[in-house]
Design the sequence.
């Protein structure tokens, strides 16, 4: 080892995220935070204490108008600031859809690079909290579809910090979706030094030989625990955490599938029309000749997310769903 | 008649003749664009500014280069007055590589960072919160530039109008909201869209300074703009409701059958902003017939040259197409460190 061993601390995902925001704000005074109740930390406490440290001019409480939160952030970004907007729940992004899709994502293109929009929009997303149909949705497929917009989803505390830093330093608009069920659950070692996790680089979370599971967000943990169970059955899964849906690291994904010859795409979002359909299509196009079986897609049932925790668990995929699918695929 | 170097409402002869020229430039430019559209050289939709020339000219002429202009899809006139090269604007309408956005933005998206022209916005009212963000940044950076945000009466019906006015006043943003009220949002007349036939109570609802202006009298427009710009430099927004009229359809694709012919004819013959200024200039002996004709001819020449420039320009290439969608992650980080 040429480098001294890095030091680590054990943080939850939301703590690591907050550290990332704090370090970036200390580094660059152009960074401002805007959102609902952000001065009080926001409802998931991602921005706690930032107002006290950086003042009211850099942590702006916004009224309940998502379109204005994003629109104003776009204007501030064009004027030379680096806004990090928080939308309280990803379900509320639809109120800001026209600003994100029609304005932020196209600004660079239609001004032939004259105006850049270095904006981050953070939003907690996904189910698992029993929060009902309008506070549990997975929205990534809507946004990964939009040219000009980057979509990033961390699955670990360390990645939450490294990816938010990369998103803030990126010159394009980035939608940063945070699996909210992991905020307090996903504790892990987080490097204490300044580091970024580059956008568009997937990571192999577990090396295996029999099938590749391509996933992201809250499903990464489910996949890893499924892999432990399957290992006792002598089924050896390789787990890939995409981390960025756009840009998409096809190389890591396709190289793995070439090796294992079997692929499962797994996400919490509804299967029908989900991002997994894009992944499955890409794998089928690029690896058709080496595949031993059709790509398996796992996603939620095509239904709004019910509030009742038992019903919610029934329609969202989890480790058990993956175990069943993997046994079928490998057998 | 002897030419007098008099002022009119405090405006010098030079300024008045400049107004006259710029209004003709917009009109002749738009007429050439209409011709290009009719000949099939300009595709898509083309929204002409003819009839509304006094608004952009009277307001934008008094801005500094670092002041920001942001507008709707009817923005060719705003771009020209802000100083963007007519050749590049016309080329953009023609989808040519020499256009301000290399032909990828088209008529509705004229941008120029050099001139602090923050574009045309094709989605109605989308530019209002963006203008507020620009104003917020001005305050944050302790800079005294103002942001002038143009939109039509149709934009008032969008929620973004209300969200933006509320926050601009609440946060004392240096933004001037200019509603170019041409009485029709596409085919829908104001009577069918607004419960109250004025923006005054809407401005009052947010405690915002408001002024109603006759948009066909450029001197009135200029004066109201002066007051609004002064207020913005002192950190307060204004809503200007400028009553105007478009002499053509909503776009070139719109025959405008919803407007009575007599109404259109009345505005054209009695309220044309260029003819109104010309009459004043003659009346006061500020310019000779010959001078006025020369200014008009100069504008015609520039419009004609712009049209020829666009015709002669090449189309964008496939390389241009894939450029500027997204920066690569490595490049993005490098960019961020440089800026």
Sequence:
């Amino acid at each position: 080892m040429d480098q001294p061993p890095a030091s680590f601390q054990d943080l939850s995902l939301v703590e690591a995220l907050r550290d990332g925001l704090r370090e970036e704000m200390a580094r660059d005074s152009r960074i401002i935070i805007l959102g609902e109740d952000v001065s009080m930390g926001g409802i998931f406490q991602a921005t706690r204490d930032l107002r006290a440290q950086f003042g009211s001019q850099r942590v702006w409480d916004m009224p309940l108008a998502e379109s204005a939160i994003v629109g104003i952030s776009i204007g501030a970004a064009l004027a030379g600031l680096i806004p990090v907007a928080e939308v309280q729940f990803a379900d509320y992004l639809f109120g800001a859809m026209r600003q994100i899709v029609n304005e932020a994502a196209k600004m660079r293109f239609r001004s032939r690079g004259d105006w850049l929009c270095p904006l981050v929009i953070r939003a907690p997303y996904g189910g698992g909290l029993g929060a009902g149909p309008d506070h549990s949705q997975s929205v990534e497929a809507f946004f990964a579809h939009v040219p000009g917009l980057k979509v990033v989803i961390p699955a670990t505390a360390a990645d939450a910090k490294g990816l938010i830093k990369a998103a803030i330093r990126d010159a394009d608009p980035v939608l940063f979706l945070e699996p909210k069920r992991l905020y307090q659950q996903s504790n892990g070692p987080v490097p204490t030094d300044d580091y970024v996790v580059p956008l568009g680089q997937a990571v192999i979370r577990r090396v295996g030989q029999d099938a590749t599971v391509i996933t992201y967000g809250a499903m990464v943990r489910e996949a890893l625990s499924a892999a432990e169970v399957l290992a006792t059955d002598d089924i050896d899964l390789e787990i890939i955490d995409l981390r960025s849906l756009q840009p998409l690291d096809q190389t890591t994904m396709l190289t793995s599938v070439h090796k294992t010859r079997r692929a499962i795409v797994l996400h919490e979002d509804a299967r029908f029309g989900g991002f997994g359909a894009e992944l499955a299509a890409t794998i089928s196009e690029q690896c058709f000749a080496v595949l031993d079986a059709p790509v398996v897609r796992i996603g939620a049932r095509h239904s709004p997310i019910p509030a009742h925790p038992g019903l919610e668990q029934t329609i969202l995929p989890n480790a058990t769903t993956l175990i069943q699918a993997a046994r079928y695929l490998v057998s | 008649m002897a030419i007098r170097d008099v002022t009119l409402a405090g405006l010098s002869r030079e300024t008045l003749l400049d107004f006259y020229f710029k209004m003709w430039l917009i009109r002749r430019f738009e007429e050439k664009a209409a011709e290009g559209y009719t000949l099939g050289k300009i595709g898509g939709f083309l929204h002409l500014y003819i009839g509304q020339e006094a608004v952009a000219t009277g307001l934008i002429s008094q801005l500094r280069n670092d002041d920001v202009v942001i507008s709707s899809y009817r923005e060719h006139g705003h771009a020209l007055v802000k100083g963007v090269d007519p050749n590049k604007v016309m080329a953009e309408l023609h989808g040519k590589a020499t256009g301000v956005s290399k032909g990828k933005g088209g008529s509705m998206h004229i941008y120029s960072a050099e001139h602090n022209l923050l574009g045309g916005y094709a989605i109605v009212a989308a530019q209002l919160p963006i203008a507020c963000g620009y104003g917020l940044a001005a305050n944050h950076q302790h800079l005294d530039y103002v942001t002038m945000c143009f939109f039509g009466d149709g934009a008032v019906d969008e929620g973004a109008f209300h969200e933006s006015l509320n926050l601009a006043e609440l946060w004392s943003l240096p933004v001037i909201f200019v509603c170019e009220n041409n009485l029709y949002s596409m085919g829908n007349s104001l009577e069918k869209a607004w419960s109250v036939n004025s923006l005054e109570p809407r401005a009052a609802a947010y405690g915002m300074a408001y002024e109603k202006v006759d948009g066909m009298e450029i001197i009135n427009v200029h004066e109201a703009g002066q007051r609004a710009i002064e207020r913005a430099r002192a950190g307060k927004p204004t809503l200007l409701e400028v009553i105007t009229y478009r002499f053509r359809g909503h776009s070139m694709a719109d025959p405008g059958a919803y407007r009575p012919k007599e109404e259109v004819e009345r505005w054209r013959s009695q309220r044309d902003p260029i003819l109104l200024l010309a009459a004043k200039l003659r009346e006061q002996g500020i310019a000779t017939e010959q001078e006025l004709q020369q200014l008009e001819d100069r504008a015609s020449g520039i419009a004609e040259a712009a049209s020829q420039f666009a015709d002669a320009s090449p189309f964008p290439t496939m390389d241009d197409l894939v450029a500027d969608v997204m920066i690569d992650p490595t490049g993005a980080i490098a960019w961020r460190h440089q800026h």
In short: Strands of chain B lie at 68-71, 117-120, 147-152, 175-181, 184-185, 188-189, 209-214, 238-243.
